[in-house]
Amino acid sequence: MIKAIIFDLDNTLTDFIKMKRLSVEAAASAMIDAGLDMKAERIMRKLFKLYDQLGWEHQTIFQKFLQEETKTIDYRILAYAINAYRRVRVGFLEPYPHVIATLQKLKEKGITLAIVSDAPKIQAWMRLSAMKIDYFFDTVVTFDDTKQKKPSPKPFEVALKKLRLPPEDCLMVGDMPERDIMGAKKMGMQTCFAKYGHRKGKKIVKADYELNDILDLLKIVK
Ligand SMILES: [Mg+2]
What are the structural domain ranges in the chain? Predict the structure, then answer.
C-alpha cells in the first residue's frame, strides 16, 4: 500500500524544459538586438548543444557560445544575453499541467507527499515557493542535506527517516531512470517513471509504473 509519494522536482513537477527553452529564446533574440549576426534558430541550436555537452545547470554557457562562434567574447552581447535569460527565467517557472490538482487530490486521499531533489536547498525552495506548491510537502530533501546525488542511497534514506515509513510503502516519481528510479529501486521503494518530463538519455531501469500525465498517479494510488 502506498502511504507516501516522493517526487523528484525538476522535470517531474516543474516544467524545467519549457522554462529553459523560453529563456534561451529570449537570450538569442537579445543577442541579435545587440549586434550578433546570426539566425535565432541557429543560436538556439548551438546553445542547446552546449547544454547537452556541459550540463543543463552550466553557468557560463553564453561565454562558451560566443567564444566558439565568434572567437571572442563581446561583453555587450553577453550582457544582453544574460539579462534577457534571467528576466524570463525568473518570471517563468510553472508546474506541468495538472500538478496542483493531482497533489491536492493525493493529499485528500491521505497520502503524505515529499521531495527528493538533487538541486541545492535554496534553489529547490525557491522553485517550490515560486510555483506555490511548497505547502503540499512535509518532507523536502535537497542536495545540501546529504551532499550526495541520486542514485546514492543517502537522500532516500534521509527521506524515509523523516517520513518514518518502510520503503515498500513509498512510491518514488521521477523523470530520470538512472537516478530517480534506480536509486529508489535499490532502496526497495515502488517506482514510477515520469515519462512526460524525460528528455533523453539512458533508460536502463524499468519502473513499476509509467506516467504520460501526472494525473495518472490517481489511478495508481487508489
Ligand atoms: Mg528531474
Answer: 4-15+95-220, 17-91
Q: How far apart are CA 150 and CA 148, in angstroms?
A: 7
Residue 121 CA from chain centroid, whole number: 13
Q: What is the pTM (predicted TM-score) of this model?
A: 0.83
Q: How many Å lie between the centroid of ligand 1 and the Cα of residue 117?
A: 8
Find out whether 172 and 193 touch, Cβ atoms under 8 Å.
no
C-alpha span between 163 and 3 (Å, rounded): 10
Tell me whether strands 209-211 and 170-174 are parallel, antiparallel or unpaired: unpaired
What gap in Å lies between CA 76 and CA 168, rounded to an integer? Answer: 55
Q: How far is the CA of 42 from the centre of ligand 1 (A)?
A: 27
Architecture of the domain made up of 4-15+95-220: 3-Layer(aba) Sandwich (3.40)
Return residues with CB closer than 5 A to ligand 1 (ion): 8, 10-11, 175
CATH class of 17-91: mainly alpha
Q: Tens digits of per-residue pLDDT, 93-132? A: 889 999 999 999 999 999 999 999 999 899 899 899 989 9
Find the 12 Cα to ligand 1 centroid distance in Å.
Answer: 5
Angle at 99 between CA 9 and CA 201, to 5 degrees: 45
Do residues 3 and 170 lie in contact, with contact meaning Cβ atoms separated by under 8 Å? yes
Q: Tell me how many degrees the CA angle 214-219-222 measures, rounded to the nearest 5.
A: 125
- Å from CA of 37 to ligand 1 middle: 35
